[in-house]
Design a protein that fits this description.
The structure is a single chain. 45% of the residues lie in helices and 10% in strands. With 540 residues, it is of the alpha/beta class. The chain has 4 domains: 64 residues, Hemocyanin, N-terminal domain (Up-down Bundle), CATH 1.20.1370.30; 158 residues, Malic enzyme, N-terminal domain (Rossmann fold); 182 residues, Rossmann fold (3-Layer(aba) Sandwich); 76 residues, no CATH class. Strand 2, helix 10 and strand 3 form a beta-alpha-beta unit. Helix 14 runs parallel beside helix 21. The longest helix has 21 residues. The two termini are 14 Å apart.
Length: 540
């Protein structure tokens, strides 16, 4: 039976609030259940923004927007789409980090699915409890490495929710096609488990064969219940992130945004930086602070790009160097994890970042360490002494984990740094010039990539798709942006960016024989027509 009366006001996908027209109020039995004035969606937006801007702190703004999503989905996404620069830092980084740390305390209404360590043998049944059948995009986390905040257990659910909001706002993937999932396998931080409001399993993390078996059952259940879905692994600890991607990337349509999405947006930033520095990628030497899954993912994509340009694999790898918590990663150093070995080059040991910078003279410094204040003044000044336009990318987030700030990078380099960060920074005035720091946000990549994969019905997500996404993104940065210091397009243009990335990714799927949907004559038009925009649908 079609919902009537009060059901339309209580279902966030049907509710228009004061936006229901006079005819709709009569037809649906809503007369008298709403204030008499009919408001346009634009008028509703103005009311929402007025209330939002009166909130004193970001976490209160996050709670307010979450409550809007719970009662009026179309209006929520329309607000995000029309005011993305203002709202994205609230619904995602950096505020989502605080929201995750406080998730149990600010919990209002459940969103998404929880699969726990106690659910072995019934995972498919749990997935069938989700009311939507046409799920095309799933973001799943086990909460062990949330941003740079570490193990938050079930509190990490804020990440899949936030990521999927961006799929819809930035690329128009319909909200009913999106499903956030948390694998609650415990939490190893006692202060979280002992929190009386904690909503997850109050136990230490499942490890080893039992963990692997639960993930295997989950993957099989996704293939059974949602066979058309793309599975995005998000914020898993390095060891599991790398292992799960290797295990499943050739079995189902999946990817890891921390590894591959971060790699693509960083590669795009380096390609844009090359236009500023005059050094092509083949002349870059990149030094990473941090040697986890993000660093190795970025390095792997850079190497892939260099191999495409004609460099031998071994030579391409020597363009990437790592500094971890023990110093420079070099060949012969004892105890190196397997994922670091391809980048363990012959070189004298350097015990700290500054020594490594002086010895290697890198053209680009990339921070993925989640260790704040590690791009120190001596480090940045050394980069500026070695190169006229040093590339400085402190990519760790949230903002509290950034290796340095935009203001520090510009000041310590005398305004010569080519800068991009993982978290947003305000414009910086230095030497009479205003710099607009670019944010290397994965939201420039994963929404458009997902849309392209869905459009083509791709059976797999490949490295070629991320390379195409990076090239497309870099190609959309105009000279005016570069002059301002931006290495990425302005955020308000992100839906146009996502549409073009989707076309590029879909083209790769067709070229590699991975598409299951016939290629339309006008692929770009099909992509644009499929994009949800948050406007109220006409009355039925």
């Amino acid at each position: 039976m079609f919902p009537r009366n009060i059901d339309h006001l209580h279902d966030p996908r049907l509710n228009k609030g004061t936006g229901f027209t006079e005819a709709e109020r009569d037809a649906l039995g809503l007369r008298g259940l709403l204030p008499p004035r009919v408001c346009s969606q634009e008028e509703q937006q103005r009311r929402i923004l007025d209330n939002l801007r009166q909130k004193d702190c970001p976490i209160e703004k996050y709670i307010y927007l979450a409550s809007l999503l719970d009662r009026n989905e179309h209006l929520f996404f329309r607000v995000l789409i029309d005011h993305l620069e203002e709202t994205m830092p609230i619904v995602y980084t950096p505020t989502v980090g605080e929201a995750c740390t406080k998730f149990a305390h600010i919990f209002r209404r459940s969103r998404g699915l929880y699969v726990t360590a106690e659910d072995r043998g019934r995972v498919a049944r749990i997935l069938r409890n989700w009311p939507e059948r046409q799920v095309r995009m799933i973001v799943v986390t086990d909460g062990e490495r949330i941003l740079g905040l570490g193990d938050l257990g079930a509190n990490g659910m804020g990440i899949p929710i936030g990521k999927l909001s961006l799929y819809t706002a930035c690329a128009g993937v319909a909200p009913e096609q999106c499903l956030p999932i948390t694998l609650d396998v415990g939490c190893n931080r006692r202060e979280i488990r002992d929190d009386p409001f904690y909503l997850g399993l109050p136990q230490e993390r499942l490890r080893g064969p039992e963990y692997d078996a639960l993930v295997e059952e989950f993957v099989q259940a996704v293939q059974e219940v949602f066979p058309q879905a793309v599975l995005q692994f998000e914020d898993f600890a390095t060891e599991n992130a790398i292992a799960l991607l290797q295990r499943y990337r050739d079995r189902l349509c999946c990817f890891n945004d921390d590894i591959q999405g971060t790699a693509a947006v960083t590669l795009a930033g380096l390609l844009s930086a090359a236009r500023v520095t005059g050094r092509p990628l083949a002349e870059q030497r990149v030094l990473f602070l941090g040697a986890g899954s993000a660093a190795t993912g970025i390095a792997d994509l850079i190497v892939s790009a260099l191999v495409r340009e004609g460099l031998p694999l071994a030579e391409a790898r020597r363009h990437c160097w790592f500094v971890d918590s023990h110093g420079l990663v070099v060949r012969g150093r004892a105890g190196l994890a397997a994922h670091k070995l391809p980048y363990a080059h012959e070189h004298a040991m350097a015990n700290d970042l500054l020594t490594a910078v002086e010895a290697l003279q890198p053209t680009a410094l990339v921070g993925v360490s989640a260790q704040p204040d590690t791009f120190t003044e001596p480090v940045v000044r050394a980069m500026a002494r070695l190169h006229a336009r040093p590339v400085v990318f402190p990519l760790s987030n949230p903002t509290s984990k950034s290796e340095c700030t935009a203001e520090q990078a510009y000041r310590w380099s005398d305004g010569r740094a080519v800068f991009a960060s993982g978290s947003p920074f305000a414009p910086v005035v230095h030497g009479g010039r205003t710099f607009v720091p670019g944010q290397g946000n994965n939201a420039y990549i994963f929404p458009g990539l997902g849309l392209g994969v869905i459009t083509a019905g791709a059976r797999r997500v490949t490295d070629s798709m991320f390379y195409a996404a990076a090239r497309t993104l870099a190609g959309l940065v105009d000279a005016a942006c570069l002059e301002q210091g931006r290495l990425f397009p302005p955020l308000p243009s992100i839906r146009t960016v996502s549409a073009q990335i989707a076309v590029a990714v879909a083209e790769v799927a067709y070229a590699e024989g991975l598409a299951t949907v016939a290629r339309p004559d006008d692929l770009a038009a099909v992509v644009r027509a499929s994009m949800y925009d948050g406007r109220y649908p006409p009355a039925k």
